[in-house]
Amino acid sequence: MNSKQDIENLLQKIAELYDTTHDDMDKVLYSKIALLELCGWLEMTLDKIVLEYAEPKLTNDSNTKYLNDKIKSIYSFEYSKFRDMLIAVIGIIRVEGLENLFELQKLRTDLGELKKKRDDFAHTTVIVGAMPNIDAPSITINKLRTLYPILQELERELNEI
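^ thats the sequence. predicted structure below, dont judge the formating
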């Protein structure tokens, strides 16, 4: 899985910039950057969880290519897309088993909320008043701190299969 420390350090730097500015547009811009960075990190992390599980187990080059192509074709961090990748690698029965082992509802909910915010902010300008309300970078950091243990547990459970 990707390092939490790297993204947390980046988000902390953005939060410091946010905290030191008095310009409203800068605050919106820093908030937007923090959200987009977290979402990008999540997308890369979900892909990496699947790849790190599958690559050592795959022996057929065409299957490795299939998995890499499938992952490259998914431009999202939505739980449903991640679930589709897992199903392609371990099958629906094992995915259902994973989902029954520990509560993934928080992951589903948080990824869904982040996806909605990300979509809203990716398609609007930073002009003050034109964007919907956006969370301060400190809220984004807290979201990372909430999601990371869930991702760790998911990765642990996946690797026990």
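The CA atoms of residues 42 and 83 lie 14 Å apart.
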